[in-house]
Specification:
InterPro entries: Mur-like_cat_sf (IPR036565), Mur_ligase_C (IPR004101), Mur_ligase_C_dom_sf (IPR036615), Mur_ligase_cen (IPR013221), Mur_ligase_N (IPR000713), MurE/MurF_N (IPR035911), UDP-N-AcMur-Glu-dNH2Pim_ligase (IPR005761). One of its GO terms (molecular function) is ligase activity. It is an enzyme of class 6 (ligase). Belongs to the MurCDEF family. MurE subfamily. Helices cover 33% and strands 22% of the residues. The protein is α/β, with parallel strands linked by helices. The chain folds into three domains: 86 residues, 3-Layer(aba) Sandwich (Udp-n-acetylmuramoylalanyl-d-glutamate--2,6- Diaminopimelate Ligase, Chain: A, domain 1), CATH 3.40.1390.10; 234 residues, Mur-like, catalytic domain (UDP-N-acetylmuramoyl-L-alanine:D-glutamate ligase, 3-Layer(aba) Sandwich); 149 residues, Protein-Tyrosine Phosphatase, Chain A (Alpha-Beta Complex). The strands form four sheets. It has an eleven-stranded mixed β-sheet with strand order 8-7-6-9-5-10-11-12-13-14-15, sandwiched between helices. α4 runs parallel beside α6, α5 packs across α10 and α13 crosses α14. The structure holds ligand UAG, adenosine-5'-triphosphate, 2,6-diaminopimelic acid and magnesium ion (MG). Magnesium ion binds next to α5.
């Protein structure tokens, strides 16, 4: 592809016109990391959180980069340099041009909790209504032709646009994907043609990255302020402190606001939750949309899944699906892997694996399981290393308050000392036990289970590895539970 077609005169943010000889350069790939540059690539030098890509321009050129895009031109240069005011956004828009195909209907969801669930639900709803559908997020890419395990919730723009192009060529017409606050803040999803945006909630998370809660919210609201074009749908859970601000941001942009939840706009475009009752491992819902009443049996555990299901339903309706069909399809939803997933039982006591690794999620997961614990509710969890340390004592206190038995164990310690992480949680979790080895902790919790108990194993959900130092060792809560259930002789 010619450089002019990638970053031509109509390219937003170019500080100066590109010289004709430079514009005629052939670009055969894009790279944001000098270590993976190949001959013919256009290298984007990005200032990052740990280092500055500008330091690696020589390495990128040595590896074959034909030109470099960045904010400030270096003094000496061996290949053309294109100065842009926002290199991350330039990268995302260039990636959208380099990988031009995208599914025709795309919905993105943001929020502290529920993104993976909403993306999975929206994909399932569309699938049931006959569309070829996919989702992209924390659990990777899920589409009819390929399933690729992911590492980031919102992939970097090159990986994201490559995937969009591939799945569109595979015939995927409908895509739901997760917009993380990091992804939004770093312009990873600019250039994606997002028809509808969803917003679940905002609670404490990522305080190691965002300087303030206002900064965190502003990153999330980029979805409505900058990405969904005027006339697109904004599906917003209306039951939170930040809901009004989210609705305001969407209205100012000229989006079609669909407020969902207890405070949802049931008389109009939104969805109002009129009533919800736990019924075994399902919930019976009464909802209202455009003044019409619907009754739905949602086959999922946890009040928070109602929020996720309604946001997903809103995204499907907001992108043109028939409301009655959408609500009917909610009766068939399957939870995303490791999201309050019932994985077994011991002595009649249910065992759930969940991905709660932040305070609000832990409260919600424990509250969701309370109806299943006539006797004791037991929780096993830890906290990830190299992540927001402030949440550790908060989660310890939540466990002590909302569970009857607490075992503190390791999550992904990464570069930190696991015992220091555990100590920070234990400091606020009065009466908790400490068992560092996660498999041993799960075993111990299962051994204790008696009729009437329920067990929550939180923090790692779908994960299949445990990150200790720089190594990723094979580990899965699902397998640890299966092994514990298989080995005990009663
Ligand atoms: C903190 C963070 O978000 N970092 C992301 C960011 O990297 P960065 O630009 O800050 O990286 P850096 O190390 O400072 O390097 C600066 C630049 O120099 C380049 N470089 C560096 C070394 C070298 O030898 N050559 C070279 O060219 C790097 O490729 C980079 O372009 O931009 C990269 C490209 O988009 C991301 O891959 C990277 O994600 C890292 C791996 C990460 O762990 N991110 C996590 C925290 C994250 O994004 N999580 C969210 C949210 C999860 C949730 O919802 O809970 C997610 O979306 O997954
Ligand atoms: N709507 C919600 N409100 C509160 N907690 C929720 C909600 N949805 C899910 N949770 C909790 O958060 C955990 C993660 O859910 P999910 O993976 O759907 O969210 P996410 O936003 O994608 O999270 P992450 O940012 O970690 O990828 C669940 O296992 C559950 O404990
Ligand atoms: N996307 C999140 C996932 C955290 C999962 C938890 N198991 C942990 O390792 O802290 C992060 O990378 O911060
Ligand atoms: Mg997720």
């Amino acid at each position: 592809m010619k450089l002019r077609d990638l970053l031509g005169q109509d390219f937003p943010g170019n500080d100066a016109a590109i010289e004709p000889a430079v514009a005629a350069l052939d670009v055969t790939g894009l790279a944001l990391d000098s270590r993976v540059v190949r001959s013919g690539d256009l290298f984007f030098a990005l200032a990052g959180s740990k280092t500055d890509g500008a330091r690696f321009i020589d390495a990128a050129v040595a590896a074959g980069a034909v030109a470099v895009v960045g904010e400030h031109a270096p003094d000496a240069r061996k290949v053309p340099f294109i100065a842009v005011s926002n290199p991350r956004r330039a990268l995302a828009l260039a990636a959208a041009r380099f990988f031009p195909a995208q599914p025709a209907t795309i919905a993105a969801v943001t929020g502290t909790s529920g993104k993976t669930s909403v993306a999975a639900f929206t994909r399932q709803i569309w699938e049931r209504l006959g569309h070829v559908s996919a989702s992209i997020g924390t659990i990777g890419l899920v589409s009819p032709k390929r399933t690729v395990y992911g590492s980031l919730t919102t992939p970097d723009p090159i990986a994201l646009h490559r995937q969009l192009d591939e799945i569109a060529r595979d015939g995927v017409t409908h895509l739901a994907f997760e917009a993380s606050s990091h992804g939004l803040d770093q312009y990873r999803l600019d250039g994606v043609r997002v028809a509808a945006g969803g917003f679940t909630n905002l609670t404490r998370d990522h305080m190691d990255y965002h300087p303030t809660v206002a900064h965190y919210l502003a990153a999330k609201l980029r979805l409505f302020r900058d990405l969904v074009p005027p006339g697109g749908a904004a599906v917003i859970s209306a039951d939170h402190d930040c809901s009004t601000e989210a609705i305001e941001a969407a209205r100012s942009r000229g989006l079609r606001v669909m407020a969902v939840g207890r405070n949802g706009d049931g008389a109009g475009e939104g969805i109002r939750l009129v009533d919800a009752e736990v019924d075994g491992f399902s919930q019976q819902l009464a909802i209202e949309h455009r003044g019409k009443a619907y009754s739905i049996r949602l086959p999922l555990v946890g009040a928070f899944q109602i929020e996720n299901a309604l946001v997903a339903a809103g995204l499907a309706i907001g992108t043109g699906s028939d409301a009655a069909n959408v609500f009917g399809s909610l009766e068939h939803l399957e939870g995303a892997k490791g999201r309050l997933e019932l994985v077994g039982e011991r002595n009649g006591a249910p065992i759930f694996v969940d991905y709660a690794h932040k305070p609000d999620a832990l409260v919600k997961a424990l509250q969701a399981l309370r109806p299943y614990a006539k006797r004791k509710l037991i929780v096993v969890f830890g906290a990830g290393g190299d992540r927001d340390a402030g949440k550790r004592p908060i989660m310890g206190a939540i466990a002590a308050e909302n569970a009857d038995g607490v075992i503190i164990t390791d999550d992904n310690p990464r570069s930190e000392r696991p015992e220091a992480i555990r100590a920070a949680i234990l400091a606020a979790a009065k009466g908790a036990k400490e068992i560092g080895d996660r498999a041993a902790a799960i075993r111990a919790a299962i051994e204790e289970l008696e009729p009437g108990d329920a067990l929550l194993i939180a923090g790692k959900g779908h994960e299949t590895g445990q990150i200790i130092g720089g190594d990723v060792l094979p580990f899965s809560d699902h397998e640890a539970v299966a092994a514990a259930l298989a080995t005990r002789v009663s």
